[in-house]
Design the sequence.
């Protein structure tokens, strides 16, 4: 059976999320709602869905999401019973009515391929539910490294809500706790699939909501996002670099350097990148990076 976990905090779009669950053509799923000590009471709303689908609501007395979204996800995941597959659905995202049914229709093939990550097609919607993107589809089966390459090239998008993971993969590998969980979901797709096949269901969509409440849309946390992005690229190159294609590794180094130069004052990043480049014997790259940094600093001084 499928577990749908909702780390709840905001009431604003929650009814649309619940409606999308109530409207599923297949109700073979159980919803686990973990309330992150929200000041916005959802119990009155939830009462209206008691007979629509099966759910368990649990209110946590301390707020964790403001400190670590990953820790909030983890304690919500502990609410699950014996379900083998897990979707972590945002409290503002929406499932097309055939998502669950499509999951079950494709499950035999997924298991035959021994895939541990399932992905739906997706579209982005705004606060009013209007589409602000085209429909993003994917190859039916795609190696994780190919997906990462396509993502870095700007050929696709990705968010946590559009995936279903094998629960055992989550338990064994666990989410990496980057600041704001920025890139944590992307790394999870790569690692939970064991860098093997991601299976896509293109005939059903998940609608990702982009609104003023999203971390994605906020502009006051750019430095934190930069820090998380640096950690993400550094982690990939440190842990996985040798097993990736030369082209992908080169792209990751380029992205890592750009992230560093976007926040040149972060001394810890300089120390980490120095260590990485020494370990990976990237001396020529390192010298070029130093030159770029000096040129940027000199130009800034001249401009002032």
Sequence:
């Amino acid at each position: 059976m499928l577990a749908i976990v909702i780390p709840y905090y905001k009431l604003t779009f929650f009814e649309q999320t619940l409606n999308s669950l109530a409207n599923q053509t297949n109700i073979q799923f159980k919803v686990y709602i973990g309330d992150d000590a929200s000041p916005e009471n959802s119990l009155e709303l939830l009462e209206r869905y008691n007979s629509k689908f099966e759910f368990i609501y649990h209110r946590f007395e301390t707020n964790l999401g403001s400190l670590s979204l990953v820790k909030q996800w983890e304690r919500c995941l502990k609410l699950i019973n014996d379900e083998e597959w897990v979707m972590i659905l945002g409290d503002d995202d929406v499932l097309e009515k055939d998502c669950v049914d499509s999951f079950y229709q494709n499950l035999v093939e997924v298991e035959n391929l021994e895939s541990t990550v399932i992905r739906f097609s997706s579209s982005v919607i705004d606060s009013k539910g209007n589409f602000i993107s085209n429909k993003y589809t994917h190859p039916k089966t795609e190696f994780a490294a190919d997906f990462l390459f396509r993502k870095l090239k700007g050929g696709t998008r990705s968010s946590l809500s559009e995936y279903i993971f094998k629960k055992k993969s989550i338990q064994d590998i666990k989410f990496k706790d980057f600041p704001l969980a920025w890139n944590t979901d992307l790394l999870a797709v790569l690692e939970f699939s064991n860098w093997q096949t991601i299976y896509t269901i293109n005939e059903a969509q998940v609608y990702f909501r982009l609104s003023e409440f999203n971390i994605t849309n906020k502009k006051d946390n750019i430095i934190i996002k930069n820090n998380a992005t640096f950690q993400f690229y550094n982690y990939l190159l440190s842990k996985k670099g040798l097993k990736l294609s030369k082209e992908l590794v080169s792209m990751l180094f380029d992205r890592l350097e750009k992230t560093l130069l976007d926040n040149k004052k972060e001394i810890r990043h300089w120390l980490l990148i120095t260590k990485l480049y020494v370990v990976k014997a990237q001396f020529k790259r390192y010298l070029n990076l130093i030159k770029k940094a000096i040129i940027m600093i000199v130009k800034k001084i001249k401009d002032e």
